[in-house]
Design brief:
This protein is α+β, with helices and mostly antiparallel strands. It is 22% helix and 23% strand. The strands form four sheets. Strands 1, 11, 12, 13, 14, 15, 17 and 18 form an eight-stranded mixed β-sheet that branches. Strands 2, 3, 5, 8, 9, 10 and 16 form a seven-stranded mixed β-sheet that branches. Strands 4-7-6 form a three-stranded antiparallel β-sheet, with no helix packed on it. A hairpin with a 5-residue loop joins strand 9 and strand 10. Helix 5 packs across helix 7 and helix 5 packs across helix 9. The chain is globular, with a radius of gyration of 23 Å. The two termini are 28 Å apart.
């Protein structure tokens, strides 16, 4: 059976906040305007992304106030990271720039009448109980993402001596790797370091359109097609599915010999995408899309992206299939689809997508029948150490991708099960009946039973409209 981590009980507690304040750099910084890259300022990234970390008390830090320690370290970190203390402005052509004003980031300290042990394992993952109390998010008086703080931080002290760090960063300033780099710098300074192990580098000009632009690849992720509403927000239920060593081994058994070396990401994404499509009962002739949030820093060779770069080094390619092809073929078809979309992201593709955005006025990515995946399990968002050691749990404060609406995507989160085994937690939001079908599909992979559509059993495999036959009827084998 699928191992789910789901919050069956409600944890309610009182949080008392102090007045939010602006934390400015600890030393004078340069006043200037910083240009963003053509990936940074695309409208799809004009959002604030929330994150959260949970910390236990530490004997070596008895008497230390985590709010004061982190606040002072943030102020020091804002000297080398001074653009984060600035404000976004809009100039001609819908282009965003950062005015480095040193106005500061918003910081709130608070106290909660709860101890860390009162949170169940499930409640340390999205949806977080009382998240609105744990992260001050009142932008009254500010003009959206413009002219407002680029980073919000709240440190909430707990009854047990532990604390919770919650934050929201404007996505145009940094991706997940950039965010982790900043908070690791804060941690080093909080622990007394005089020098950072990694210094921030701006260099957003490395990801700019060519002159003249040369769109050499197809970019269907930006197709402008009408959105298709599959469900309303009020209809959704949430479950989080844990995939550890046992579950991943079971999924591998469903693959043919030539695919058994596929990565965990490829296998898991294929299973989630296919199962979700079956669960939603999308018409067989409809197109369904899978979009990946990919770190692309290592793809740039000429010139390379330097260590310390904290901007958006991402791409969001898609693969497209009909629902019929995805759901009626064995899982190997979906794995091939995932592999193909990863393979096409090379340096020329990355330069082409930047040129495409500029030529086409920076359109938004489509959401129609699109499921988005962002694997943050390797970003070490549970490693930020401010003197109390790494957090018990850390990662995104919400479990879904695709803007303010759940159900259109998921994060892959680093987690552990009750045995202490490391694995990946996948939060899923679906209507109740679809969730039942989704869980049945996932259990079908793990138990080889109960699926509406064949999963592992070899059968005819459609490719380009042609039915191909595969080998003997042994689970996980087709040639």
């Amino acid at each position: 059976m699928a191992n789910t981590m789901n919050n069956k009980t409600t944890l309610v507690f009182k949080v008392t906040r102090q007045t939010p304040e602006l934390i400015t750099p600890a030393a004078p910084t340069r006043y200037e305007f910083k240009e963003l890259s053509d990936i940074d300022d695309q409208p799809g990234l004009w959002i604030r992304v929330p994150g959260i970390q949970f910390y236990r008390s530490a004997p070596s830090m008895v008497g230390a106030d985590p709010a004061r320690v982190i606040k002072e370290a943030v102020s020091k970190a804002l000297v080398p990271y001074y653009p984060l203390a600035g404000r976004l402005r809009k100039k001609e052509g819908n282009k965003l720039v950062v005015e480095c004003t040193a106005e500061g980031v918003m910081f709130t300290e608070a106290d909660a009448e709860v101890s860390l042990d009162e949170f169940s394992e499930a409640q340390l993952h999205p949806p977080i109980p009382c998240i609105d109390e744990l992260l001050y998010d009142d932008f009254h008086g500010y003009d959206g993402i413009l002219n407002s703080p680029l980073l919000l931080i709240q440190v909430t002290r707990l009854k047990c001596g532990g604390f919770i760090l919650a934050h929201k960063i404007n996505h145009v300033m940094a991706d997940g790797i950039g965010l982790a780099q900043f908070f690791n710098a804060v941690g080093e300074l909080a622990r007394g370091a005089q020098f950072l192990s990694v210094y921030p580098i701006w260099k957003r000009d490395l990801i700019r359109a060519r002159d003249p632009p040369q769109v050499t690849c197809e970019h269907p992720e930006y197709d402008q097609i009408s959105d298709i509403t599959l469900f309303g927000d009020d209809d959704l239920v949430h479950k989080a599915f844990f995939f550890g060593p046992t579950e991943i081994a079971a999924l591998r058994l469903c693959l043919p010999a030539h695919q058994k070396s596929s990565s965990i990401f490829e296998i898991l994404t294929a299973v989630i995408w296919r199962s979700r499509t079956i669960a939603l009962r999308i018409h067989p002739d409809e197109e369904v899309r899978l979009r990946l949030y990919m770190n692309t820093r290592h793809k740039y060779k000429n010139p390379p992206i330097p260590s310390g770069f904290y901007g958006n080094g991402i791409a969001t390619p898609v693969t497209i299939s009909t629902a019929r092809m995805l759901t009626r073929n064995p899982i190997g078809y979906a794995v091939d689809q995932v592999k193909s979309v990863k393979t096409k992201v090379n340096e020329e593709y990355l330069k082409s997508v930047v040129d495409f955005l500029v030529v086409n006025g920076k359109p938004r990515t489509t959401k129609a029948h699109t499921f988005t995946v962002s694997d943050v399990s390797k970003l070490k968002l549970d490693h930020f150490d401010f003197g109390w050691g790494p957090p018990v749990q850390g990662g995104p404060a919400r479990g879904y991708m695709g803007g303010p609406t759940p159900g259109y995507g998921s994060f892959y989160l680093a987690s552990k099960n009750e045995k202490g085994e490391s694995g990946i937690l996948v939060p899923i939001y679906l209507p109740a009946l679809a969730m039942d079908r989704f869980e049945k599909e996932v259990n079908g992979y793990l138990n080889d039973s109960g699926s509406e559509n064949p999963i592992c059993i070899p059968r005819s495999y459609e490719k380009n409209g042609v039915a191909l036959s595969f080998g003997v009827g042994v689970k996980g084998v087709y040639v």
